[in-house]
Amino acid sequence: MNYLGHAFLSFGDADILMGNMIGDHIKGKLALNDYPEGIQKGIMLHRKIDQFTDEHPATERAKVLFREKYRLYAGAIMDTIFDHYLANDPKQFSSEQKLLDFSLDTYAKLEHNRRYWPEKFATYFPYMKDHNWLYNYRHMQGAQRSLQGLERRAKYMPPSDEAYKTFVGYYYHLNQCYYELIDDVITFVKIELKA
Questions:
Q1: What is the CA radius of gyration of the chain?
Q2: What distance in Å separates the CA atoms of residue 147 and residue 145, rounded to the nearest whole number?
Q3: CB proximity list for 113: less than 8 A, separation 6 or greater
Q4: C-alpha dihedral sign at 117, 107, 191, 84
Q5: Contact 16/192 with Cβ under 8 angstroms?
Q6: DSSP code of 134?
Q7: Residue 72: pLDDT above 90?
Q8: pTM of the shown model
Q9: Where are the domains of the chain?
Q10: What tens digit of pLDDT does each residue of 24-58 get?
Q11: C-alpha angle with apex 11: 34 to 125, nearest 5 degrees?
Q12: CA–CA separation, 85 vs 135, rounded Å?
């Protein structure tokens, strides 16, 4: 799961959301102490979601399509692609308006906690909001731009054009992988949040 997935799996809790969205930027246990308990829980949840998703059999099957060319980046590519399917999942977002409302609410909650933004997150959040990344995962062009963004951030990743072509060519197969994952990850996160 990428930005949309982590936001969605925060289930509306502003502190969990904050931690979940900045999780990639907080390294080690000592850095956790800089944050309130709810945000710490979100950071730890982010890590658990990443591990659960990456090790899920459906994700493993999907990554095979990308592994030869993209190697270790296959997982990050699948995170981005899963967000596209989530944005189009009628069970989670019954309309475009629901996804738009969710996106705007997410940005507002993140801005409310801006004092906890790591420097890197503060650098790209304005672009996320202005270009409505969360909502635009819904469209093929948005998914393509997300893959290009991943390519820019990843030091050794080959050009993302081939990943996008594979995504398009195996669209329904990858969508099936998403549907095999989503209910499992929702159940997993709900159990984690109760712990």
A1: 16
A2: 5
A3: 14, 15, 18, 39
A4: negative
A5: no
A6: H
A7: yes
A8: 0.95
A9: 3-194
A10: 999 876 678 889 999 999 999 999 999 999 999 99
A11: 55
A12: 12
